[in-house]
Each structure stands twice: as C-alpha cells, then as structure tokens.
Amino acid sequence: MDNTIMLTDSHLLSILQLASPALPVGSYSYSEGLEMLVENGTIANHTHLKDWLKAELLSGAIRLEAAVMVRSQQSAKMGDVESLCRWNLWLSAARETEELRASSWQMGRSLIQLLGKLEPQIVPIANAVGNPCNYAIAFGIAIAHWQISIQAALLAYVHSWASNLITAGVKLIPLGQTAGQQLLLDLQPLFRVTALEILALEDDELACCSWGLSLASMQHETQYTRLFRS
What we know:
Function: Required for maturation of urease via the functional incorporation of the urease nickel metallocenter.
CATH architecture: Orthogonal Bundle
Strand content: under 5%
Shape: globular
Radius of gyration: 17 Å
Pfam families: UreF (PF01730)
Subunit structure: UreD, UreF and UreG form a complex that acts as a GTP-hydrolysis-dependent molecular chaperone, activating the urease apoprotein by helping to assemble the nickel containing metallocenter of UreC. The UreE protein probably delivers the nickel.
Keywords: Chaperone, Cytoplasm, Nickel insertion
Structural class: mainly alpha
Helix content: 55-70%
Low-confidence stretches: none
Subcellular location: Cytoplasm
C-alpha cells in the first residue's frame, strides 16, 4: 500500500505552524509525569526515555488523544457540532488525573483563542464547543479548517508530542541536545506505524494502558521541587 502523503506548499506550511514548538499554547510547560519519573529514577538515561516513549506510542494515552483528534477533524469538516461536543466531553472524562485534564484544557483554550484571532471563521464552531475545550479537539478544528491531510496531521501531532517530552527529558535527566535529536530520529518509523494504527481504530476500540503515566502524574502534584506544571 502506498502511504505517501501529498501536501501543497500552503498545507505544509500550515501544519508546520500548528505543530511548531513556537506555537503559544504552553506545551513547553508540561512534562506529562516525566519530572516525577526522573526524580524517582525510573527514567535516568537516553535508553529509559526511548523505552518510555515507545511504550506510550504503542499503548499509551497519546493514542487515545490522537484518535479523538481524528474524530474531531471529521466532525468539524462536516459541521457536526453535536459530535464535536460529545468527543470533547468524552476525552475530558477519559483523562486519568486532574493535572492531565487541566493541561489538555489549558492548551486547548490557548489554541482556540489563537485560532480565533488568526482565522475568525473558526469562531462560531469554537464557541459552539465551548470552554473547556481539549487540545485534541482544537487541533482537529484547525486541520479541518485548513484542509490538511489527516495522515499528515496525525504524524505532526505525535511528532509534536514526542518533541515536547524529549525536550523535557533533555532538561531533566539531563541529555545532550544531540542525544535528544537522535532519539527523535530513531522514533520516526514508530510515528508512521502509530499513525496508521490510529486511523484504523473503530470507536469501540478506543482504549489505552497508561497506568504508569497516571501514577507519575498523581505524584507530581506533591513533588517537592517542580520545573513543569505536570
């Protein structure tokens, strides 16, 4: 099967902007439990971080989040506000801890506000979803508006997620910048596999195994020294 993704220059620039670490949504302030995992020694080097990220891509909460992003894109494309609101509520309920839910809501709110200023046409559908709006929902609305290929959007979504956590790992473990970039390169084949698997998921197959993330997130709340918000 040919998995080549064709993008116009305009679409490519749009997805690069949306997935950029410079996007002012606050993603840099979250470690998704890594801060606690580094402190307790669960993640202490490049190999540990790679194994953690691989496990999350194979069975963790990022798959659930990305799958909801796909559904939000489809709903926004059809103008199905009822479906958008349902998936937004569903994802909020699926968040295992208050910190993880709060981070999704904060980033979603920031992205919706930004999109409203950049693309005022998005405002009616964003207002219909309301607040709180999860980040995956806001991302789906954006790619639907910009008519970006869902395959390209999925790759950008998981790549952006991994880039953020690798950056956190570079600071916390610490790792060298080169080691961080090598890790991102090593994960590229898994990004592609994960994106294809997520696209094939039916609604009743949406699930994840992320108890390690949940436990780390809950402990982070009472961690003595913190650099990140989660």
